[in-house]
Amino acid sequence: MNFDSEDILYIDFQDPKFQFRDIMEEDIDGFVQSNEIEVLVLDHYEHEYFERFPIAKKLIIISDKFYDYGDDFETIEIPLLDYEEFFSFQKQSSEKQTFNLFFRQGTLPQLATTLSPKEHLFGQFIRSHFNQSELKLLNILAHFNGSVVTTFQLYTYAKERYKISKDLIYRQIKELISRGVISFIPDIINPSSKKLLFFDFALAKYLSLTQSFLKQFDTMVALSLIKHNIKFKAFGIKGYITQRDFLIIPAPFESEESFWKKAHSKFAIYKQNGVKKVYIITVATQYEFEISNILFEALPFYEWVVINDEN
After folding, report:
1. 217: buried, middle or exposed (CB in 10 Å: 19+, 13-18, 0-12)?
2. What are phi and psi for residue 44, nearest 5 degrees?
3. What distance in Å separates the CA atoms of residue 311 and residue 298, rounded to the nearest whole number?
4. CA-CA distance, 208 to 154, in Å (whole number)?
5. Exposed/middle/buried for 287, CB within 10 Å: 0-12, 13-18, 19+?
6. 71, 232, 247, 280 — which has fewest CB within 10 A?
7. In whole angstroms, what is the distance from residue 304 CA to residue 311 CA?
8. Which residues, at least 6 apart from 219, have a Cβ–Cβ distance to it below 8 Å?
9. Are 273 and 188 in contact (CB under 8 A)?
10. H or E element: which one contains 278?
C-alpha cells in the first residue's frame, strides 16, 4: 500500500524541538483531522508516553525496545544485516572484497549502502539509540566482547572508571539484553561460565581499543549463528557447538598442519561432548581431514555462512 507524503505525519521523539515541550495527543488528533492524515509515524517512541494513542487510520510505532501492544498491532522485528544481505548490496565486488568490507563495516544497514566514513555513522547511531550513561556502559561491554565474564565483574570494572551504582548497571545490562545489544552464551565445557557477545563486531572495535582481529572474527561467526536462528553454546574459549553437535571453530589463519595437531590433542574432549563434525572457519583457506569418525572441514567464512543453516 502506497501513501502520498502529504498523507503521512512523521514525529521523531528525539527531535530537539520537543526537548522542552510535551507532545499532546489532542494536538496530534487535531492536526491529523484537519490535514486528512492517513498514516501517523511515531519514531523513537517511549512506550506509555501517551495515555492513549492519537487517532489515525494507520499508526506505525518505531522503537528499539519491544513492547506488547496486543492483537491491535502487528509486530515486525527488523534485524541487522547478515553477510548474505550485506553481499546483496555489493553489486560489483568479489566475495573476498565483500567479506573484507563486511568485516570493516559491520551489520548496520546504513553502512552497506553509503560511502560515508563509518566512524561518523557509528557516532550517529549510538547517540540516537543510547543515553550518556548507557554509552559509558557500552564501552565496557565492547571491551569485554568475546570474553567470559559475569555481571558483577562488569560492575567492578565499570565503577573503577566512572560513578555507577550496582543497581543501575544491573538494570541497564538486563535492558540491553532485552534489546538484543548483548547476549550471554552458556558454555558447554564450563557450565558456570557465560561468554559475552556484542551485537555488532565492527561497532565493538569502534568503542574499544582491545578488540583484536580474532575477537572480531569470532563474534562475526557467533552472530551469524544467532541470525540463522541456530541454537548453540560456547565450547570453551574458542568455538561454538550447535544443537546438532556441529562444532564451529573460528580460526581465520589456521593452516591444515597446525589444526591437525590441535585436533589430535583435543580429540578426547570432542568425543566426550558428542561432536559429530567440526567446521573450521577461516578467512580464505580450505582443507579437510578425518580423525576416527569425525570430519574436519575448513571453509572461508563467506562460503560457510551460505550453508550455515540447521533449520
Report:
1. buried
2. 55, 40
3. 22
4. 15
5. middle
6. 71
7. 15
8. 145, 146, 197, 198, 201, 204
9. yes
10. strand 277-282
Domains of the chain: which residue ranges?
5-72, 229-311
Q: What is the identity of the amino acid at 281?
A: I
What angle is formed at CA 154 by the lines to CA 63 and CA 45, rounded to 5 degrees?
Answer: 10
Say whether 289 sits in a helix, a strand or coil: strand
Q: Which grid cell is 153? A: 565483574
pLDDT in tens, the chain (311 residues): 667 788 899 998 888 887 777 888 888 888 888 888 999 999 888 887 888 888 888 999 988 777 778 878 888 887 788 888 888 887 767 888 888 889 988 998 888 777 778 888 899 889 888 989 999 999 999 999 999 999 999 999 999 999 999 999 999 999 999 989 999 999 999 899 999 999 999 999 999 999 999 999 999 999 999 999 999 999 998 899 999 999 999 999 999 999 999 999 999 999 999 999 999 999 999 999 999 999 999 999 999 998 876 54
Strand pairing of 277-282 and 287-291?
unpaired
Q: Calculate the alpha carbon distances from 184 to 73, 154, 216 in Å.
A: 30, 13, 16
Q: How far is CA 10 from the centre of its chain?
A: 27
